[in-house]
Structures are given as structure tokens and as C-alpha cells.
Design goal:
9 helices; 6 strands; alpha/beta
Length: 210
């Protein structure tokens, strides 16, 4: 930050809140925003949809339950669906997966998830309910909605800094790029040998893709 020219805006996307706190203590500039990527996304959602929207970490489960009730699925299979469908919904969002059978099949094969076509149909229906509900948002929505909802505006910065970039999903990578001004500069740090968040949409090639 000491090398950023005066009058240029900067965004530092830290990996967790403890790093945010440390960086804020060390930063001496007034033109720098320091936050986690989820906090940055949540702020943009609140600016678009207002403070009345709710944070619901169980949104995926709620939409799965709605589909289960509509399809009158037997009680003995509900526990399985409450586990597998939210997992698929998260992977669809962090990979920007289209809501069609082939795209979902390719996705679950990539992550080695064993489901059948009936499961995919349930996921498709739950996903439709999930993305059309703009009254509540979950943790994954904080990244997905600013990237996919054209009415949500991300603030642009001249410089964007981020760490642990080997663990960014496709959706997070696009979020970062959308935060850059037209002539903005991205400064990122990562280690391709430490890619450990495959369950969150990253993979061994995430660093090189960014």
C-alpha cells in the first residue's frame, strides 16, 4: 500500500476476519477498504436490496425442503436429500454452473459425487427457487449474487489486493475482476501447492486460472 499512488483507491480482500483486523491496525491510508470477500459482497447486496433483507445460512436447506414437500418424497430419503442437494447448490453457484442436466452432471462428475438423474431434477428445481428469492441470502449468495445479478453494483477500485488466491472458486475470481476499475491492477498472492478448498469450488488449477 505504501507504493500505491496518492488519490488511487485500493481494496484489500483478506481471507478471514483476523487478517482484516491486523491489516486495519497497520494501514495508515484513508483511501483503502479492507474486508473479506464475503463482507464486500454483502455490502453490495444491502446497497441494492436494502437493509430489510435477511441473512439465512439455511437458505439452501429451506429450498430443498420446499421441493421435497412438493414432490411428496418419502420420509426415508429426506435425510439424504437434505445432505446432497444443498451441497450441489453450493457447487453450482461457486462454479457458475448453468441450471441444466448436462452442466450439473459434468459438475458432479468433476467433484466425484454419486447421484442419479432424479437427484439432478430436484437440484434444478431447488436452484430455481434459490436464485429467485431476493428476500434472503446465504453465505454463498454473498459472492454469487453480485456476480450474476446485473442490478447489483460492485464498487470499482484502482488496486485490488488478495491473498490465498489458490483457494478462490470461479465465482470468487470473477468477483475480484469485477471489483477492478477499467485500468485497475490486481495484486494477488497464492501457492498452487496449497489448494485445499476443493469442496468450496476451488481446484488445483485455481491459481493459474486467476
Amino acid at each position: 500500500l505504501n507504493y500505491v499512488p496518492a488519490g488511487h483507491s485500493s481494496l484489500f480482500l483478506a481471507f478471514n476476519n483476523s487478517i482484516v483486523d491486523e491489516l486495519r491496525e497497520r494501514n495508515k491510508r484513508a483511501d483503502v477498504q479492507i474486508m473479506t470477500i464475503h463482507s464486500c459482497g454483502w455490502r453490495s447486496i444491502l446497497c441494492r436490496y436494502g437493509s430489510k433483507v435477511k441473512m439465512n445460512p439455511n437458505k439452501s436447506i429451506a429450498k430443498t425442503e420446499k421441493v421435497i414437500k412438493e414432490l411428496n418424497i418419502s420420509e426415508n430419503k429426506r435425510g439424504y436429500y437434505f445432505y446432497i442437494i444443498p451441497k450441489i447448490l453450493d457447487l453450482m453457484r461457486c462454479n457458475l454452473c448453468e441450471n441444466n442436466e448436462k452442466a450439473i452432471m459434468d459438475l458432479i462428475l468433476h467433484y466425484d459425487i454419486n447421484v442419479d438423474k432424479e437427484d439432478i431434477k430436484i437440484a434444478q428445481k431447488a436452484f430455481s427457487y434459490l436464485i429467485t428469492d431476493k428476500s434472503q441470502f446465504d453465505f454463498m449468495d454473498m459472492i454469487y449474487v453480485p456476480v450474476t445479478d446485473e442490478s447489483v453494483r460492485l464498487q470499482k477500485y484502482d488496486y485490488v489486493f488478495c491473498d490465498e488466491s489458490q483457494d478462490f472458486s470461479v465465482c470468487q475470481q470473477l468477483f475480484i475482476k469485477m471489483s477492478l476499475s477499467r485500468k485497475g491492477r490486481l495484486v494477488t498472492v497464492g501457492d498452487r501447492n496449497q489448494a485445499i478448498y476443493g469442496f468450496a469450488g476451488a481446484d488445483a488449477d485455481s491459481y493459474d486460472k486467476l
